Amino acid sequence: MERLKNIRRKGNQMEVRRRADGKYGYFPLDTPIPALEQFRDMQLGTVAHTFGADILRYAETYKHRPSYKHVIGVLGLFAETLGRDRHRNTITDTEIEAMITDWTAADVSAATIRKRRGILHAFFRKVNGPKGHNPVTGTTNPKAPKPEARGLSMDQVRLILEDMFASSKKSRRQSLAKIRARIIAWSGIPPGILRQLGPRDWSPVTRRVKIPPRLKGAGVEARSLELCDEAVAAFQDLQEAGGFGHFGIKAVNRAVQRAARRVAAREGFMLPDGFRLYDLRHSYLSHVYKVTRDLATVSRLALHAENSTVSRRYTMGVHEDVDRAAIAAVNASFSVAQRDAFRVHRGKAAKVGTGANCGKKLWKKNATALKSTG
Questions:
Q1: Among 195, 197, 252, 275, which residue's beta carbon has the most beta carbons within 10 A?
Q2: Where does residue 302 rank: exposed (0-12), middle (13-18), buried (19+ CB within 10 A)?
Q3: What is the pLDDT of residues 220-259, one digit of tens each?
Q4: Alpha carbon distances (Å) from 7 to 12, 31, 38, 47
Q5: Lowest mean pLDDT: which of 59-68, 80-89, 236-245?
Q6: CA-based nearest residue to 236, from 298, 187, 288, 168
Q7: What angle do CA 165, 211, 312 make, to 5 degrees?
């Protein structure tokens, strides 16, 4: 007689075994299907057709995103407070507003609250449709914080990189951490993108690296990024060390932070609050804006979507340098002869007379002088 799987006899009745999340339950063969599904959902910490179950289904469609764990964690935070075993459409804007108020009172940053609120808004928009029930729309969205200058000068960045594992007796992991930090500092490539790259994604001949599509935010198509000399050297070192592929970002971040604190104490400069690995990218892109004065170029090198306003954060802290260079370029654009002619005729025109027409006479004389010396 053929043995049936997941079926057993207990006393005078037959039972079927159901497995969910590593746990087993035995039910009579005539148990209704909804009861079996309820057991499965309960083992997963939720009941079918509830807010918690909707989060699990939403999670399945979100698995391909890099921010998957963060998004599901935030939705779990809402489910824990609002209740996971209720229908999603019973959630009100008043309840969500109370959570936002509590976070504000607990000194949670406005940026964090905005992100959490945005994640819940996207959830309701996905499961209920753009025009469906969305209680988040009736809540307060905290004012966006003003972007702060987080970049260091590239001279300071160079000192930090040199300080990382300065000893010649360093492990392979330490050497790779330093190389990866160099790539981020001299190319602006985000750490999450860097660990997706392989040896075939870059070429020392063309001095370019192929960047895969970015799913963050509005999404960005695949691009080819030009590399500076320092970045090319870092990529060559990474290839020779066989360091392409996935790596732990937190370990590299800790190494950069330790080196930054040592260098800042030794050289006597201030680090931005919460300085981290990602700030090497900020420093590079701020430097690009400083030397090019072109926000569109910064946006492309930052791998941002076209017309993205996020790129403006890299202009913070370098406005004075850019303005000073711009005025110097304006001054240099006028020839010496033009400036001398303007000064001479301005002095003569000042003696022409006074009154309402004095300015007009001055303008005409200066314009004529500039044309004759052009």
A1: 252
A2: buried
A3: 788 899 999 999 999 999 999 999 998 989 899 999 999 9
A4: 13, 13, 19, 25
A5: 59-68
A6: 187
A7: 80
Q: Integer distance in angstroms from the first to the last C-alpha of the chain?
A: 106
Distance CA 270, CA 75 (A): 37
In whole angstroms, give the CA distance from residue 21 to residue 42: 10
- Core vs surface per residue 123-137: b (16+ CB within 10 A) or e: bbeebeeeeeebbbe
Torsional sign, CA 90, 94, 98, 104: positive
Which pLDDT band holds residue 114 (cuts at 50, 70, 90)?
very high
CB 202 within 8 A of CB 170: no
Q: Is 12 helix (H, G, I), strand (E, B) or coil?
A: coil
Q: Three-state SS for 130? A: coil
DSSP letters, 301-323, are HTTPPTT-SGGGGGGTT-HHHHH
Token pair, residue 236, equals 């060559």
E strand or H helix at 260, and its extent? helix 249-267
| Three-class HEC string of 66-116 | CCHHHHHHHHHHHHHHHCCCCCHHHCCHHHHHHHHHHHHHCCCCHHHHHHH
What's the Cα-to-Cα distance from 121 to each of 34, 133, 246, rounded to whole Å? 30, 10, 32
Give the relative orientation of helices 68-82 and 51-62 as an angle to the nearest 10 degrees.
Answer: 180
Find the mean pLDDT for residues 184-196: 93
Q: Are 127 and 54 in contact (CB under 8 A)?
A: yes
Average confidence (pLDDT) over 350-366: 50
| 13-49 confidence digits (pLDDT tens) | 666 666 554 556 666 666 666 665 555 555 555 555 7
**Consecutive H or E run containing 276:** none
282: Cα within 13 Å, side-chain hemisphere: 22
Token pair, residue 225, equals 């990024």
Q: Alpha carbon of 347 to those of 306, 341, 350, 354: distances in Å?
A: 50, 10, 5, 14
Neighbour tally for 199: CB within 10 Å: 12
